[in-house]
Amino acid sequence: MTTYVVLFRGINVGGRNNVPMSALREHLGADFARVRTYIQSGNVLLDSELSAEAVAAHIDASLPSAFALDSDLVRVLVLDADAYREVVAAAPAGFGDEPDRYRHDVVFYMGVTADEVRPYIVVNPEVDEALVGERAVYHRRIAALATRSRLNKIIGSPVYSSLTIRNWNTTLKPAAMLDE
Fold this sequence. Notes:
alpha+beta; four-stranded antiparallel β-sheet; Alpha-Beta Plaits
């Protein structure tokens, strides 16, 4: 049995694609073991005998029949425990430090590569820093100047629908849950 972290893109955002976590746990619990969720933005841990690709395909196929969704927006990223831990470990030194001064986000790739995403990462050198990693972009911006950040430039790019963004604390919690 393999433990997976499943990150949903496009649920419970801006009043669209509302999926109560209790209903999602119940839905996924019919096919997977030890289903647990973290906050409303679609962070799930589950156990399965299936491969990550098969888990993703199963969830993608079953969600539209269980919930009223704008399916163009909703996607899932499924990473096994080791791959998820690698994303956390690959963060640059000091990433997440000084949370009162900086906002830290992890931009996970969903079916795209770092080379495909890199051209669309724009920074304001006075505000933003970004490191393009193998599975995610690690983005830091000065909180007091967040409105001048260029992170939002990725919206509308050809790769935007293949990304899901989590703040650093939300990225860390599933990693901690893997060890519980």
